[in-house]
Amino acid sequence: MEQYRVDDEGKKLTTNQGLKVSEDEFSLKAGERGPTLLEDFHFREKMTHFDHERIPERIVHARGFAAHGEFEVYESMKEFTRAGFLQDPSVKTPVFVRFSTVAGSRGSAETVRDARGFATKFYTEEGNYDLVGNNIPVFFIQDAIKFPDLIHAVKPEPHNEIPQAASAHDTFWDFVGNNQEAAHMVMWTMSDRAIPRSLRMMEGFGVHTFRFVNEEGKARFVKFHWKPVLGTHSLVWDEAQIINGKDPDFHRRDLYDSIENGDYPEYELGVQMIEEEDEFKFDFDLLDPTKLWPEEDIPVKLIGKMTLNRNVDNVFAETEQVAFHPGSVVPGIDFSNDPLLQGRLFSYTDTQLIRLGGPNFHELPINRPVCPFFNNQRDGYGRHTINRGQVAYHKNSLAANTPSPASAEEGGYVHYQERVEGYKIRARSDSFKDHFSQATLFWNSMSQPEKEHIIDAFSFELGKVKSESVQQQVVDMFANVSLELAQGFAEAIGVTPPEQGGSNVTKSSPALSQEKTKKSPETRKVGVILDDGFNGPEVSSVLDSLKAKGIQPEIISSKLGKLKGTDGSERKVDHTFLTCDSVLFDAIYAVGGQGASKRFHRDASAFLQEAFMHYKPIGATHEGEKWLEANEMKNSPGVVSGNSSEKFASAFIDAITEHRHWEREII
Description:
17 helices; Catalase_clade2; six-stranded parallel sheet; 3 domains; Rossmann fold; Catalase HpII,  Chain A, domain 1
């Protein structure tokens, strides 16, 4: 076996055939900004090997959960695209959406710091359309040839398979420090966006630049957005880590329970559009996947709504076997030459071939289109279709040359005729070489609490890195984004803070901050701490007020069963202090009861302390007020007390609506 042990250090890079490779940063393109060429054997070998490295779970996005739903367009988009599902507001298009983390295995926890997949399959009458995106609008790399390198770096380190579902280790940050195009995406992943409160409360983005093409053949560049109706909200880092231990299924449970309860998650589909003649009017390249289009400059037009209203019947048959592909498009939606998108158009099909056992994965029920499909493809593993007749080729006379191609007028897909010219070259356009201006734009757009969370995130992640050289490289790199940022986490991890750097970018984009997101009390979970002898009329009045606003109260006590109030009313206990935790709720309503034990007081006090530390709303009456006083929480922002049920309930609902009370962080 010794002859198979290889030490790569100090060697020249080769293909698997031993051919020395002269370039490993850029795929082969027709001109610097042109499409990737199929003849790029090095890219295809590298990507094919990467796509086949894991069996049977997905290489990335292995940990996922999904739901069925429907999509309705608000008004006809005929002016912009011929896509059939975007024409008639009276038509409901079935959809299937899979949410996922990226780095972890299928058995990992869900509230880790990570990007989230947001993949939507539209079952349209023209065929399946897959909008395969993330909850972050940009990506780490600019060219798909580097995707295997990125994922190798962020996955558990191969010598000990540690850490699982985490980027806080040497190889990931070594990659970042030596591939500075990652700067913008890293800012997002170090922000609150990377730890969403719920899958129902996070945005989705198509990431890449696509094209809308209308019936006249006019094209526009387009980016896709999903805007959650409940607003965009996040966890705090300490809370997220505790949830991973208390309930590693937190996000899927939240999504599943919401749909079962009839609180259907809703997202509005938005598009940003740029005329082709305006392609070069911006200070970023439209083809660069590490750049976003600022919403203040290119507004998001909301064009429809998606509602998720049915849970899956079988996770394996649906969630695990669903196959998405950005190349699954319908007439009226086309591609750009974004080099990351161009590589994905190859990679996704190739990945499904090994994951789902062969070329017929499209015949699985969850992947099968709702419209009929006809072609000359035959046989292979997993074939469901039983084709009749003797002909399986084009052209033919025995079957009157059918199935035959369809013209554009008949609904046939016609690729947009973009002029392409240039030398065959491995290179990247100079317009892709600005790696820091939008990272600074993101930093400038954050509120003060959000900035402090980003510094804390860098401090945590790099505090886990063992190599001081890597730590210093990252500090020096992010000095190009913000001196305040780099100096902040340099001090925390004990390396040399930069004295020079910073950026002359002063622009900000309010749309990037969650500070002004929509805030609603609907579907928020409130833990209600009760014991025997609680004030029955008051508790009934408050809980009725909460429910009237769509808030979901759940009773917590020292043991399961029923509790009796002062008026003889009974309340069923949903959780004990042992089986739940404050991190599993959006707010705490502390009441207590007559004659509660010392242990009850201790456990209730611990609940309030943790909720307070995570900036959550706290409501307290009776014994609850005593717990507030004992922990010096009374009169703090977001803490409501008092025994006037109507006035208390109104103030408590207002506090819940705010979600977090960051003022506690800065007073």
